[in-house]
């Protein structure tokens, strides 16, 4: 048994969007609006096909707090944690047939067509908690 | 009647009631919704008020009313206040007819994705609620509801008639049905994430549905083979994990924990199916499972027979996973180096490149040749490549074992 189990059952993937604030700022208003509309259409299509679990977008990385515990005491500093050009801006959690389908969906996200923005697809290995929330 | 008994009854009656309703009114889409509502109503009312004398008739009546309400409101939306033409007729109850197969063929329509086929089959034929299916697949109920409704729209758009396909198309479509049942079983069997209880339910459900198909098509070797494969695999469920949830490989399982009743039934089915004219992949996989079931200890396994069966399987359904399994059997007969040599023929296969099964089998055979460094490296790489936590834990424990 199990000749092809992981290849064929439905799988969950996290499609994360790695944004570069400088790249986004350099876009025209029209281009920015097109991204927003593209995400709207993408979400609608995912809902229709039943492949969307959830999607969330995050605030600007400058608003992040970095938490560590030293000698049992929490220490909080201003983020972001990594000094980088790109940050996670948001994600889609999807449930689809296989990795090929996840990649096909990722390619429909408007960010994928913009130089300097990155889309990453990774399979989910463990999950717990309320999905309805 | 207790709640689980009522649940079983509802699951058994669902395809019968749905079949009767679709025969009377057509439009699978609306009928399926109406039956789901009737089943939900029964699940609430029957435990409190008792099961009606004719539960099937009760469901049929309630579902018919829901459907007619639905038709009327659709109609009203179109024609405002004009009188509706819908005639309130409850279809005649003909308990002799079994539409299970017809419904299965419809739910496993080739225009649907496998995920949709699975979901729709569980609801329309299995009688599970959307919430139960969503829980079993660890997705929100809204996601599952969207998937099911989308699937029904697609079936409607394809303009399917309610009846069995004939001739060659029947065989073609039956293969899809069996594959869907196999996927449902596998989802229950792998138990790689989430609540294992719900996943085991899926294995039960797959066996129940396959039994229903077997009753309808007792002469079909592949249906028999699939049922046997499920029973023989399910028979090992108690032995294949530790109480802590860790995987136990076949050669280390406590075979006294195998369910003899399921094995006996599975072996009988395999024998019956192998006597038939044609030989298919499910029959061969079942025959392999039966060969393992036949050995009282791992040492007593008839490896030449396992190898011969994989060789036939490789010929009729070529697949790198089959070759991989044959390499394990070959290593048992001619030694680990022979197994490794066969594995090396898979190196160029893109379907298996970096696959954790190829890595872990190679690790296992390297360990047997005494190459502990190679085994360690491959176990670690396999652990990184798998998406199953249980498998990852197992592979990491093997890695630390060869290092020690």
TrEMBL record, chain B:
The protein's name in its UniProt record: RNA polymerase sigma factor
Domain RNA polymerase sigma factor 70 region 4 type as annotated: residue spans: 105-155
RNA polymerase sigma-70 region domain ranges (all copies): 10-74
InterPro entries the record matches: DUF6596, RNA_pol_sigma70_r2, RNA_pol_sigma70_r4_t2, RNA_pol_sigma_r2, RNA_pol_sigma_r3/r4-like, WH-like_DNA-bd_sf
GO molecular function: DNA binding; sigma factor activity
Species, as recorded: Microbispora catharanthi
GO BP: any one term: DNA-templated transcription initiation
Limits of the DUF6596 domain: 173-273
Stored Pfam families: DUF6596, Sigma70_r2, Sigma70_r4_2
Source organism, top-level taxon: Bacteria
Keyword terms: Sigma factor, Transcription, Transcription regulation
Protein family according to the UniProt entry: Belongs to the sigma-70 factor family. ECF subfamily.
UniProt key word Signal: no
Record flagged with keyword Transcription regulation: yes
Coiled coil: none
């Amino acid at each position: 048994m199990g000749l092809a189990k992981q290849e064929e059952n439905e799988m969950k993937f996290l499609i994360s969007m790695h944004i570069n604030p400088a790249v986004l700022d350099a876009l025209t208003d029209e281009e920015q609006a097109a991204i927003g509309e593209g995400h709207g259409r993408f979400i609608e299509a995912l809902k229709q096909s039943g492949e969307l679990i959830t999607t969330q977008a995050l605030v600007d990385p400058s608003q992040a707090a970095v938490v560590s515990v030293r000698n049992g005491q929490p220490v909080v500093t201003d983020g972001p944690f990594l000094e980088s050009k790109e940050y996670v801006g948001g994600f889609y959690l999807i449930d689809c047939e296989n990795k090929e389908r996840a990649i096909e969906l990722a390619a429909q996200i408007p960010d994928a067509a913009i130089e300097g923005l990155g889309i990453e697809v990774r399979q989910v290995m463990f999950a717990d908690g309320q999905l309805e929330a | 009647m207790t709640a689980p008994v009522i649940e079983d009854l509802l699951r058994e009656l669902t395809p019968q009631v749905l079949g009767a309703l679709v025969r009377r009114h057509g439009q699978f889409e609306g009928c399926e919704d109406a039956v789901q509502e009737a089943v939900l109503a029964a699940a609430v009312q029957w435990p409190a008020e008792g099961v009606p004398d004719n539960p099937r008739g009760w469901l049929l009546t309630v579902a018919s009313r829901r459907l007619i309400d639905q038709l009327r409101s659709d109609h009203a939306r179109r024609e405002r206040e004009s009188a509706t033409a819908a005639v309130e007729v409850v279809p005649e109850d003909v308990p002799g007819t079994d539409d299970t197969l017809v419904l299965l063929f419809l739910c496993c329509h080739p225009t649907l994705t496998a995920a949709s086929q699975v979901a729709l089959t569980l609801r329309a034929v299995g009688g599970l609620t959307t919430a139960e299916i969503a829980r079993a697949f660890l997705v929100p109920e809204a996601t599952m509801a969207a998937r099911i409704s989308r699937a029904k729209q697609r079936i409607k758009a394809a303009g399917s008639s309610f009846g069995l396909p004939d001739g060659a198309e029947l065989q073609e479509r039956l293969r899809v049905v069996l594959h869907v049942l196999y996927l449902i079983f596998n989802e229950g069997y792998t138990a790689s994430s989430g609540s294992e209880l719900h996943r085991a339910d899926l294995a039960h459900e797959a066996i129940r549905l396959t039994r229903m198909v077997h009753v309808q098509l007792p002469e079909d070797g592949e249906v028999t083979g699939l049922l046997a494969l499920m029973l023989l695999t399910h028979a090992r469920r108690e032995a294949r994990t530790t109480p802590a949830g860790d995987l136990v490989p076949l050669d280390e399982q406590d075979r006294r924990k195998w369910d003899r009743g399921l094995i006996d039934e599975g072996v009988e089915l395999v024998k019956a199916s192998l006597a038939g004219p044609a030989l298919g992949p499910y029959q061969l996989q079942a025959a392999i499972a039966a060969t393992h079931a036949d050995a009282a200890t791992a040492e007593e396994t008839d490896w030449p027979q396992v190898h011969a069966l994989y060789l036939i399987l490789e010929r009729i359904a070529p697949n790198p996973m089959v070759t991989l399994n044959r390499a394990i059997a070959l290593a048992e007969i001619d030694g680990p180096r022979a197994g490794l040599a066969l594995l090396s023929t898979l190196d160029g296969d893109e379907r298996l490149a970096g696959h954790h099964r190829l890595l872990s089998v190679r690790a296992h055979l390297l360990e047997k040749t005494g190459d502990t460094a190679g085994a360690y490296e491959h176990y670690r790489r396999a652990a990184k490549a798998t998406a199953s936590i249980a498998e990852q834990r197992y592979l990491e424990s093997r890695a630390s074992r060869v290092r020690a």
